[in-house]
Amino acid sequence: MVFEETNFDLPLLVFIDSNAFEEKNFSFSCDSMIKIMEYCNAVQIKIITPDIITTEIRRRIHRSANNARKTIKNNKDTRWNIRLLGHDEEVWSKLKQANYYKELESTVVAKYDSFLNETDAIILSVDHVKPSVVFEKYFDIKPPFEIGDKEKEFPDAFALESLLIYAENTGKKIHVVSSDKGFKSACEQNQAFSYYSNIDIFIEHVLKVVDAVESGLIDECHEWLHENYNEIIKQIADAQSNVDISLNTQWGRINSKNYISFETENQAVVEIDDTHAVMTGSISLETRLDVEYETAGENSYYDANDNLVIPIVDIHKKVDVFLRFPFRLVLNLQNGNIINLREITFDIADKVVISPDDYAEFDIRSEP
């Protein structure tokens, strides 16, 4: 499946894993989380999270509060070592209270729930994930499962499948923020996901996206593609010259092929830095073929004695077909302006078999 959403299609869909919140100490008032909420309010990003992960985050908050209680309890006789807390008797007496940590847990959970509400997060149910799909990855040791203690990855596996289903149903790429190795491996193997190891790296990416959109550079890339039709058709012709196209008919052959026109589809800027911009999409190439082949004639029948169909007629005609394949285009940039074309590549199979049907469409990428 081709995902129409790209890294530069606002709002960006983002999934923030539990470990990313934990790395921020579940602080929703830190600079990073405030920035995330600002992006949500500006409709520049949209948070999406499976319900199994929201449960996991609440569990981690409980565990963190419990660990804090144990740490204080274990250091009750050496409180001077806990960042000088012993100098503040009021704080120390509060920390020693048994119910303080339950109240702390409730407070942080309430802030997390408020975060989800204020950002209008999309909560996905994992009920629609087929267990058979998850178990297949489990037994094949596919990400997020790894050799060893694989059972602990089941929640992540169900979370990933629910995200993938959403991406496939909407055609939208999902940006995954997680330090988990299993999540990283899964994202690297699926074009539905883009991976970021922490929240701050994702925020930096959003800054680049917003800047590129607001500067008009995205629109300029699309305009360049439209204005350089002749250059692109020449590149397409060169790429097609070595492709072996044949007919799926008896004694069929293609005498000649001529490229009439092409259209780009699902084109989008997917990467920008100081030196270059990358566009991807697909091309629909209208091609006129001069073909010859044999086919059964009118009122034909099978002659068992001669083991053939009678009568056979020769067909010689011209057909217009549409050949579809992906492209990747790189433009050189300088000071935020397009300088020239660095390269354009096409994903086309070496051998293509088609039927001689007028206006038929054929996906001829190397791995359709």
Distance between the termini: 9 Å
Class derived from helix and strand content: alpha/beta
Q: Multimeric state of these chains?
A: single chain
Number of helices: 11
Q: Give the helices and strands as they follow along the chain.
A: EHHEHHHEHHEHEHHHEEEEEEE
Roughly what is the average pLDDT, rounded to an integer?
81
Unreliable residue runs: 1-5
**Helix share bin:** 25-40%
Beta percentage is 25-35%
User: Total strand count, please?
Assistant: 12
Largest sheet: 5 strands, parallel
Gyration radius, in Å: 29 Å
Shape: elongated
The side-by-side strand order for the widest beta sheet comes to 3-2-1-4-5
Notable traits:
alpha/beta; five-stranded mixed β-sheet; elongated; 368 residues; five-stranded parallel β-sheet
Explain this structure to me?
The protein has 368 residues and is an alpha/beta fold. The chain has helices spanning 18-23, 31-41, 51-74, 89-95, 100-118, 131-140, 154-170, 181-188, 199-215, 217-227, 229-240, and strands at residues 12-16, 45-50, 122-124, 174-177, 193-196, 244-247, 253-272, 276-303, 308-334, 337-346, 351-354, 361-363. A five-stranded parallel sheet has the order 3-2-1-4-5, with helices on both faces. Strands 7, 8, 9, 10 and 12 form a five-stranded mixed sheet that branches. Strands 6-11 form a two-stranded parallel ribbon. Mean pLDDT is 81; it is low at 1-5.
